[in-house]
């Protein structure tokens, strides 16, 4: 190595060169740190995207399952509405049948009342006929005795 005369070395030049080299070293360290952080962030972004994809797939699966459940419930409700309609129709027909039976019962009741009235009239006529017959027989029985 050549001998360096320390008197010929300028202190400002050494400080400037040291500062210049230190700046390059610090820029290199900052560059490496930034690249490391960028790589970490990229890795996190990829894993986070995977998490979001998984969540989206789960949500779509849950939405499909919920849609199936709602569809099944709608079908059951449609059946229940149909059953309710049929039940209402059956109740209406029962009311109509009940009305018809009431009318028939009333008609038969009126006919039986007419029969009773006629039967009473006939029994009265028979009783009067019997009384008349008994009087006639009594008169005939008394007539030959004379």
Characterise this structure.
The protein is an all-alpha fold. The chain has a domain at 11-108. It has 1 helix and no strands. The chain has one helix at 11-142. The chain is rod-shaped, with a radius of gyration of 61 Å.
SSE layout and pairings?
Elements: H1 11-142
Attribute tags:
mainly alpha, 90% helix, 146 residues
Tell me which oligomeric state these chains represent: single chain
* Helix proportion: over 70%
Radius of gyration (CA) equals 61 Å
Shape: rod-shaped
Order of helices and strands: H
Unreliable residue runs: none
Provide a brief overview of the structure.
The chain is mostly helical and 146 residues long.
């Amino acid at each position: 190595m050549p001998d360096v005369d320390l008197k010929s070395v300028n202190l400002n030049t050494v400080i400037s060169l040291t500062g210049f080299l230190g700046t390059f070293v610090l820029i290199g360290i900052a560059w490496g740190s930034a690249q490391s952080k960028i790589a970490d962030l990229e890795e996190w972004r990829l894993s986070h995207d995977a998490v979001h994809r998984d969540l989206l797939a789960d949500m779509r699966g849950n939405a499909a399952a919920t849609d199936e459940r709602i569809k099944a419930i709608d079908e059951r409700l449609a059946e229940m509405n149909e059953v309710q309609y049929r039940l209402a129709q059956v109740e209406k027909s029962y009311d109509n049948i009940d009305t018809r039976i009431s009318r028939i019962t009333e008609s038969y009741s009126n006919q039986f009342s007419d029969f009773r009235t006629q039967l009473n009239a006939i029994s009265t006529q028979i009783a009067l006929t019997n009384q008349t017959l008994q009087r006639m027989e009594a008169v005939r029985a008394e007539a030959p005795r004379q």
